[in-house]
Amino acid sequence: xxxxxxxxxxxxxxxxxxxxxxxxxxxxxxQKERGPNVTLSTFEMPLWNANSPExxxxxxxxxxxxxxxxxxxxxxxxxxxxxxxxxxxxxxLTRKGAQLKNPADIEAYRYGSLLxxxxxxxxxxxxxxxxxLRGDYQIAVLQAFIEVEIIAxxxxxxxNEWVGVKLxxxxxxxxxxxxxxxxxxxxxxxAMMELFAGAIGHCKNPSSHREIKMDRVTAARxxxxxxxxxxxxxxxxxxxxx
Length: 242
Description:
242 residues, mainly alpha, three-stranded antiparallel beta sheet, 13 helices, 3% strand
């Protein structure tokens, strides 16, 4: 069976990893174990039993802490639980963890953790999140803000000729916009108009006209921002219905 030292040949390499990266290496090793139940010492003790100069005994405490952090992270993520039918110290995969069967599944999970379902508007869960998980970041962001535009146009009752920034400035016009809250103060109405118009102008329009290099962290942040705007539109729609 593979050991941790095969992936991280020295203490410096292990300690340089963040908790998530080290956690996913440990998770991969858990999957490779023959039995369903494991302990953290299953992976820690071979580092010291090998008597390797690359893992000096003086590094045992910081390495133990780093591995404990990563092990706890796996539990917090719902990938490992205390084995209910074993003595203390034994763990097993959760049903969620057991679904990650290969490196591709694990990589998709790592990407997906940047875009948690709890922060996503339902409108974006089925349509946008799969694009993000495939690595289509620019398309995912563009489509997320197209959804904002579609919903804003639908609620406001404006025609299809109203698009982009023009649509938002008309729908949220502070004087008499169809989506403006006329009970709020004028400055807040202007701010809401600028929020939606600026979001479309900054987040949607550039991707509509040219190829944008976008990393997954930036894409996740923008998609969550689109989710917030959709929630604001939900609140407007609910207010109109009451």
